[in-house]
Each structure stands twice: as structure tokens, then as C-alpha cells.
Amino acid sequence: MMRFWSCLGALLALFSHISWAQSRHGLLPLPAEMHWGQGRLNLRTPLKLQFDTPPDPAVAAAARRMLARLQGPAEPAKGPVLQIRYGRAGQPEKLDEERYSLRVTPMGVSIDAPTSLGVLRALATLEQLPIIEKKQRYLPEVDIQDQPRFAWRGLLIDAARHFMPVAVIKRNLDGMAAVKLNVLHWHLTDDQGFRIESKVFPRLQTVGSTDGLFYTQAEVREVVAYAAARGIRVVPELDMPSHTTSWIVAYPRLASNDSVYAPYQKWRTTNVAIDPTRETTYTFLDSLLTEMTGLFPDPYFHAGGDENDGRNWRRTPRIVAYMKANKMVKADGKTVDKHQLQTYFNRRVLALLQQRGKTMIGWDEILGPDLPKEVVIQSWRGKKGLSDAAKLGHPVLLSNGYYLDLNYSAASSYLTDPLPADTSLTPAEQKLVLGGEAAMWAEFADSTVLDSRIWPRAAAVAERLWSAQAATQDVADMYRRLNLLSPQLETLGLRHRRAPELLLRQMAGTASVLPLRTLAEVVEPVKEYKRHFQGYDYTTASVLNRLADAAPSESEVARRFAVLVDSVVAFKPTSPNWLPASLRQLAALRAQAIRWQANDIMLQPLLAANPSLTEYGPLSTRLAAVATVVLERLTQLQTGKSPSLAWLAATRATLDAAQAPAGQAELAVVKAARKLAGL
Ligand code: ACM
């Protein structure tokens, strides 16, 4: 049967002049232009690396790394050549050109680029090209011309809430390079921890972090160099004036009031802010920023600015008096306006950064008419933040829609465009849109599960920011390529698939992991920030090793189930009309539902025996109930019987109940089951 389908695919490809490689390639992000040929280059004979002129060591190292992964460590003396030519060393910090062309013929491979950055991007593309057929690996013949749509394609990693060791950062940089993300936004400080060594103010890292974990300055330099070798910039964030409990714990003189602060061990926003009215605050920042800006060669520096409701300032008579004396009041002339005080603070920080040659970035809360135009605004609260800032003349970055920690689907990020077709921005304002950043906040991600919360979904953001808008409308094809990419990312050292599996094995102990995996595969952690509000009081000490942590942010099994349901409901439910293809889909759905139905009885003893799993018992029971509904509905469809009103009512009740979360996780198959049931 498979043979029949693949022959049919080949025939269709032939008639539409689409090569096999063209319809099945795994390139992500999609290149700007691809022209596929019919030839191929067999990788049985290793490629020989050849540069036109002596290369930059980082480029030569990147080419060798890629070739080692592609074909092993052998460096052949002869054979087909990987020829690399480029014009000059690229300057990522100047958002330099990343354009390249990549040509594969049966005779060899060539890469041409104006800068070394283009070569790095071409190597990432080349590594995704191999196809396997009849147990042989080939590079398909292709001519690729490629360039990014946006110059700024970032990933924020929050290393403050949970500390992320250097090895974790490095493997994520490798993942970024593979999908052409080019900015690591390193969120280094927050209420719960100050994660970068200051030699001037050492209490920041030794007292400010609840667990005492931080990056030494040598480690920071190591990460910056590792990133640079991959064409990735590192933009540090020191978040202020709020999100600074760790600073104030270490240096109480920064506080806005006379409270004594203990290290903050919970997750919710504190609205604690440093005092913007005292000169000593700026003396402190002057020294700290001299030290910190010196560690990062990138010209951009993120100063945070988010989530300060001003309560710390409004409740301190001395600060209120300062605001009144300086006319920081609302239109009524009386009520103090914390936004004006924060703008004053921003201007002072901006001046300190500018003295050190840095361009300041801030979260969208800092926007206001008095904010100097050179400050880059990162929009996270809504799309409007982006257009408001661009209309006021600020360069902008989009992160709203790209928050990986909200556990939304890859599709939802993919369909979020910094410059949608119906944008209200003028061409000049559109030029201010530098790009965007996926954001991985780490309240619910420690170094074990971090990768699985980032990958593979961040790759959907990478494609949105790299590839042409018109070429990226096909969500199903994005998922097809995401699934090809995901195992490739693990060969780079990422642990997004292995780590959750190990957690499950740990939970299963000596029992078989299979039934637990069957449940975990169709469960997702609750979306948005609901995890904070479902009866479990998380602190920095909470261990993230429960089923909610092993469950994927987006269940691939549930997604495939939904795709099958979509195709089945697209047919009329009268059996004579079923096509062979839809019969196959019905059979696949039935097999899946039978597995789920049978799973509960195998899993319940394990859930009951392990106290940390007991809370998931209801999810297993509900999955079996959903499976029963699915099986009943499939029988109705195949026999052409309409569901009774009683069945519909009972099914609605079953599915409503099945949607309820347990253990901060929920079943990801209920929506599709509803659709199948016609509800
Ligand atoms: C943010 O998510 N508070 C920037």
C-alpha cells in the first residue's frame, strides 16, 4: 500500500513538474528562492571543503562542524567539493547582510555570499538538505538564493527565574543557528535572581539570588564568543526599575521605601522598584553599567522597564513630594503620574547607556511622548504596542504572539506577523520594524525542561521572521518541516525530546513507561499564566518534575488527531461516499481511540501508587471517556447513522468534563473530539 502511495506521489510530482525533493524538502526557514533540479549528489563520497581565500577561523570552524555532522570527521583529499566564497567578514552588530546563494549539482556544492554571515546561514540550509532514498543519502540538485525578511530574529532566554547553565545556553545557540535566529536576548536579572557577576557590586550575585547561581564574567565572555562564532548577537537585559527585588535585597540603598526585603521566592510580579529620585541610584547605575556594557560588544542594551505599577513610588511620601515638585502630575494637576517619573528614569538610564555607545531597548510600557526616539521598543502586551511605537518614530521589535511560555501552538506564532498584509504603518514606519523575538520566560522552565518549551516551536517564529510573507501561508507544511527539523535539533545537543521522556521514566520507576507516555503525549500544561492560579503555590524551590512538566507545550499526537478529524468531517457521513483515503483515516482514528481507551486500566495502578502522579488520575479516566465517544461516533459515521439527541447530550457532558484541568495540565484532544461529534 505504501508503495502505491509513494508511486502515486512521484507520478503527481512528475506531471506537475515538481521534483520529489521540492515537495518533500525539510528546509526551515523557507529560502527566498529555490529552483530544484532532477539530479543529486550522493553523500557516500564525503565533500571536500575548499575556500576561495583564507577564511575567517569562525567560518572555517562552522563549515567543519557542519560537515562533521553531515558526513563524519573524515576530511577527504579529493572528491566532490564544497566550495565557499565570501566577500568580507560580516558584522552582526551592524545588522549586516546575511544573503547567500547555495548551489548543489551532481558534481559538488558551492556557497557564495557577500559576507561571512551569509556563509553561516548557507551552511545551516545545506545541513537540512539531505534526503534518504533506498538507504542512500543524497543532496538534491538545487539552486537557492536566500536572504532574511527581518534583520532582528531573536530568542529571549530568561536565566533569572531559573538559572540556565552555560551548556544549556550554548546548545540553544546551536539550535538558533540551525534556524537562522540571530539574537540571543539574555534576561539576566529579575526579582528572583541577579545572574551575572558584578565585581563592583558583588552582593548582587552572591546575596541577590535565592540559590546563589550566576554567570561569572569569564562565562559571559565565553557565551558571547560562542554566539559570535555562529553569527548570533547577544543582547543582555538588566530589567529595571521594577523586577529588581534581587538588587534591593543586595543593596537596600536602592529601595524606594524603608522596607527590608528578603530574597523573593515566588513568581508573581512584585512591583517593587528602585528609587528613581535619588542621585545615589544613578551613581550606582553609572558604575554597574560601565562594568556590564563592557562585557557585551553588541551596541544594543536592554534596560527592561516592564510591569511597574508605581505602587512603591506612590506609597512613599518622599517620592510623591519629588513628583509634585517636578510637576510629574496628571492632567488634573494634582494626581502624581508614575509614568512621568519612569520616563525621567529612562532618560537618565538612556544617557548612561549612550555615554557607553549603546542603544537602549525597553519593553513597551516605557513608551510615551517624552521618550527619545532612539530607544527601541519591544512590544509584548499587544500588537498595538508595536504600531504605536513605530508611529512615534521608534525602532520596534515584536514579541507579542511569540511568548513560548504561554504554551500556545507553533501555528499561532507562525500566523503572527510583525508586518501583516493589512498593516496600518506607512512605508517609512514599516522600516522601523526591525523584527521580533520569541520569548522563553522561565517561571515554569528549569534547565531540564527549558529546551522542550523552546523547541521546536521557536523554529516557527524563526521562519516567520526570516522567510517571505507570501511563501509562508501553509501551516500544514510548516508542521511537516517542523517534524523533520525536531530530531535534527537533538543531534545538535538539544534535549527537547529526550528530557521529557527521562522525566516520564523517572515517574514510572520500575513500571513500564508506555501507559504514562500515552497519556503525557496528549496532555499539555495549562495555557497562559493559569499555572499560577490552580491551587499549587509555586516558589523558586518547586521542582518541575511532574506530568505537567513532561507534557509537551503543543501535543503532536493531538495535533495529528485533529488533522485526521478535520479530513474525516470534511466528508458527508454516508458510507457509500467514503474514499479509500478517508477509510484509512477512519481506521487510524479508530486505532488511536482504542489505544487511549485501553490505556486507562493499565495506567491507573501507577498513578495511584506514585503520590506525585495521583493528581493525574482524572485525566487518564477522561481520556478513556473521550476515546469511547470517538469510537461511538466513528461507528455512527461508518454506518451512516445519525446520533440521537440523548447521545449528543451525554457526549456534550462527557467532553465538557474532559476539558477540566488536573495537576495544571489538560487534555489536548477534546476540541477535535467535539468537532468529530458534531458539537
Ligand atoms: C514581560 O513579559 N513582562 C516583558
From TrEMBL:
Q: List each copy of the Beta-hexosaminidase bacterial type N-terminal domain by range.
A: 26-147
One GO molecular-function annotation for this sequence? beta-N-acetylhexosaminidase activity
Glycoside hydrolase family 20 catalytic domain boundaries:
150-468
Top-level division of the source organism's lineage: Bacteria
The keyword Cytoplasm is annotated on this UniProt entry: no
Keyword set, alphabetical order: Glycosidase, Hydrolase, Signal
Q: What span is annotated as the signal peptide, if there is one? A: 1-21
EC numbers listed for it are 3.2.1.52
Cited Pfam families? Glyco_hydro_20, Glyco_hydro_20b
User: What's the family?
Assistant: Belongs to the glycosyl hydrolase 20 family.
Could you identify this protein by its name? Hexosaminidase
Q: What species does this protein belong to?
A: Hymenobacter artigasi
